[in-house]
């Protein structure tokens, strides 16, 4: 019987040959197969071919390493999901930003684990995140939205993006480690007799609660449509005309 081939191990590094960048890069490699919350320093040391003390020299505890990974992930997220001049008006730019952010998270699940699911943020990450939000709100205000509407619209879109992405990621992780696990909507018992409307909708391809493209698009447009209606209902501010007395006094001078 042929022996099962073992995965190739890295050659053990010489003492002092590793730096923080190598450690962070190795942690991202390891996180491809090990959930971020289960990642351990001994695992990472073995993956990198170094003694665990070489890692503790730069990162005294796991949270320090995760903070460094989050800083890098957030910087990458800003590059992939920048708003910029990606549309002709506030609605198109916010729409494009939402889709760019969702694509970035879905294409790199580790970003989702570090930025959305892990609750802790380093001071650097917290500052970067606040500045990014400030940039987007500023863009919306310059695009014609009052500050309150710009803040509310972005907050709702941000919540919609993150909720959709986190739900998809949690379901993906659940099925990866337990292929028999099912989401809430997959457990519903729908029959023409007991739930005729749901059965009819399901026959048309509708699945309630699933974080798919169709439901994401529908929810996003609901938020943007509502914001647009709010703006239409608001009276346009008119320029105040100077008082007659003020006009006369200026002429008299």
CATH fold-type name of the domain at 87-233 = Tetracycline Repressor, domain 2
User: Biggest β-sheet: count, sense, barrel?
Assistant: none
The overall average pLDDT, rounded, is 82
Structural class: mainly alpha
Q: What gross morphology would you assign?
A: flat
CATH class of the domain at 87-233: Mainly Alpha
* CATH architecture tag of the domain at 87-233: Orthogonal Bundle
- Give the strand content: under 5%
| Count of DSSP strands | 0
Roughly how many Å apart are the termini? 109 Å
CATH superfamily of the domain at 87-233: Tetracycline Repressor, domain 2
The number of helical segments is: 12
Poorly predicted spans: 1-7
Detailed description of the structure:
This protein is mainly α and 253 residues long. The protein has a domain at 87-233: Tetracycline Repressor, domain 2 (Orthogonal Bundle), CATH 1.10.357.10. It is 64% helix and 0% strand. It is built from twelve helices and no strands. It has helices at residues 20-30, 41-48, 52-56, 62-80, 90-107, 109-117, 123-142, 147-177, 184-187, 196-203, 213-233, 244-252. The radius of gyration is 26 Å and the shape is flat. The termini are far apart. The model is unreliable at 1-7 (pLDDT under 50).
List the keywords.
single chain, 253 residues, mainly alpha, Tetracycline Repressor, domain 2, 12 helices, flat, disordered N terminus, transcription regulation, transcription, DNA-binding, HTH_TetR
Question: What are the SSEs and their pairings?
Answer:
Elements: H1 20-30, H2 41-48, H3 52-56, H4 62-80, H5 90-107, H6 109-117, H7 123-142, H8 147-177, H9 184-187, H10 196-203, H11 213-233, H12 244-252
Helix pairs in contact: 1-2, 4-6, 4-7, 5-6, 5-7, 5-8, 6-8, 7-8, 8-11
InterPro entries: Homeodomain-like_sf (IPR009057), HTH-type_TetR-like_transc_reg (IPR050109), HTH_TetR (IPR001647), Repressor_TetR_C (IPR004111), Tet_transcr_reg_TetR-rel_C_sf (IPR036271)
Keywords: DNA-binding, Transcription, Transcription regulation
Protein name: TetR/AcrR family transcriptional regulator
């Amino acid at each position: 019987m042929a022996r099962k081939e073992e995965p190739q191990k890295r050659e053990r590094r010489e003492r002092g040959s590793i730096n923080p960048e190598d450690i962070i890069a190795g942690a991202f490699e390891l996180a491809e197969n090990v959930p971020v919350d289960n990642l351990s320093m001994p695992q990472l040391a073995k993956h990198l071919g170094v003694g665990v003390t070489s890692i503790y020299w730069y990162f005294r505890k796991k949270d320090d390493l995760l903070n460094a990974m989050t800083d890098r992930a957030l910087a990458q997220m800003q590059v992939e999901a920048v708003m910029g001049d990606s549309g002709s008006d506030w609605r198109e730019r916010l729409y494009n930003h939402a889709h760019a952010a969702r694509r970035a998270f879905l294409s790199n699940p580790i970003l989702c684990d570090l930025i959305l699911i892990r609750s802790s943020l380093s001071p650097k990450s917290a500052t970067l995140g606040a500045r990014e939000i400030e940039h987007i709100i500023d863009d919306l205000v310059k695009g014609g939205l009052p500050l309150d509407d710009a803040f509310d619209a972005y907050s709702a879109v941000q919540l919609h993006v993150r909720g959709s992405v986190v739900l998809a990621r949690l379901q993906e992780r659940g099925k990866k480690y337990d292929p028999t696990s099912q989401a809430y909507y997959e457990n519903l018992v729908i029959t023409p007799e007991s739930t005729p409307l749901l059965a009819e909708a399901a026959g048309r391809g509708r699945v309630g609660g699933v974080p798919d493209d169709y439901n994401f698009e529908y929810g996003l447009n609901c938020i943007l449509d509502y914001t647009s209606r709010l703006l239409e209902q608001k009276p346009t501010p008119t320029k105040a005309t100077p008082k007659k007395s003020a006009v006369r006094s200026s002429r008299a001078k």
